[in-house]
Amino acid sequence: MNKMNAFIEKLSPLKVALLAGFVLVLGWSPLPTFPLLFVGIFLLLVLSEKLENESNRRFVWLFYIAHFIWNIGTTWWVYKASLGGAIFMIFANSLLQITPWVLHRFTRSVLGSSKSLILFICFYIGFEHFHHVWDLSWPWLTLGNSLGSAPIFAQFYEFTGVAGGSIWILLGGLALYSKWAKLKFMHPLIAIMVPAVISLFIFFIRDFDRGEPIQVGLVQPNFEPHDAKFDIDPLLQLDTMLQQMEKLAQQGATLMVLPETALVGGIDESIPSKDRKFYRLERFIEKHPGIAIMGGCDSYRIYSEKATATARQSRYDENMFYDQYNTGFYIDSLNLRPLYHKAKLVPGTEIMPYPGVFSFLDKVMISLDGTVNSLGRDYITLNYYSGDSIAFTPSICYESIYGDWTAKFVRDGGNIISIMSNDGWWGQTYGYKQLLQYGQLRAIENRRWIARSGNTGISGVISPKGMLSKASTFWTRDAILATVYPRTELTMYTILGDYINRILFLVCLFVIPSVIVKWYVNRKNKTKT
After folding, report:
1. pLDDT digits 0-9 by tens, 308-344
2. What pTM value is reported for the model?
3. Are 402 and 139 in contact (CB under 8 A)?
4. Cβ atoms within 10 Å of 476's Cβ, excluding its own
5. Helix (H) or strand (E) holding 453
6. Which terminus of the chain, N or C, has less C-beta within 10 A?
7. Residue 464's closest CA among 450, 452, 447?
């Protein structure tokens, strides 16, 4: 330990920033190396102390470098979907992530080291909460998400959600820093080992394979998402999936789960049941009356006026407006149910942030047919009930990152979660693996079985312990038969949602003004003397 302290003491602030950034990258999903994040937070705290007497500009610059390395090292693959979006996201998110560190620096200058360390946890969790709820939401690098790579250690999420993992990592980093700085704080072994032991205990004593099993068919059609998926005849794509479903039906599947945008070509929501794609699905169900089908599609609504903030004006008819949706559907022998609209949209690629505010850009973006990249959304939770009253929760791709949003569906009666995704946008990169692992955390938080279908994979079943089984191979056509169990018990997290995040965010709203007032009073007193 003494040698390590001496090594860190000799490092310049720039080298500490570089080292911290690389350690955070190495500790991130999908690598099962999340304990490195304790070291990453520790190094950033060391960097903060080394820069205590240096300018604010240098502080911001070096912390930006560390977070830029973290962002580009873990999310560079976004360029596969959108180069411009990736550039903006990496540069902007790196800047946003230093917010709690700036607040910590300011609070430390006013209240001192000990008090500011405790408040730092509030600032960090408060920032993560804010980054979950605004229109530029990008919670990909929420610290607690890293445990998706090691779900066996995330079992306490049924009580805390992802915020519990973030606090664990922050406490571990603070404990290491306190040991290094010779401050009185929690011993590093206690901070790091106690949550790990609790999770291991829960993992090995709990059993969730109970109840009446349901056989689900997971369809992975594997159409290249950039070009082929939108160039190949939609009915030909559907025929491919129907052939896969036919095999699964013969094996005993009673619920078919199709991926995000399985049905392409646009479905008019005023007459969805008359669409030829749904007609073919109905014919399949007539042949197999005990089967239900759940999946994703493109849909639209037409208006005679700009009825919503995201409504686009037609380039061909100035009196026609329309909303486009990333949509979930459920159809069985009782016919097509109400359509579900994806609510958590990807900033930049699916929605322009705050479309109501920036609607004046519609005319500028007319070449892109209205407000660029703005899909409609309505924030309505909707579970689909089978004939025997089992509720299936739809979760479309990016939505599976949001624990609080998923918990609302389960709280409203969801027994089984169906994640429908289209991960091929990112190719053979860490992107699709990270999204899969984040979905595994939703299973733990709510103790629900998850049936996951991806257009290009990975498809499979996730147990309430967050363990993946029946996994497909990425970028292959596959049809998987798997077993899930409907569950009704609600976890503490399901009932309360992101309660930790909200509480600490409210603490921030009270504390920050108080610190500012104290800073102002101290400054005024110094001026007088």
Report:
1. 988 988 888 989 999 999 999 999 998 999 999 999 9
2. 0.94
3. yes
4. 11
5. strand 449-454
6. C
7. 447
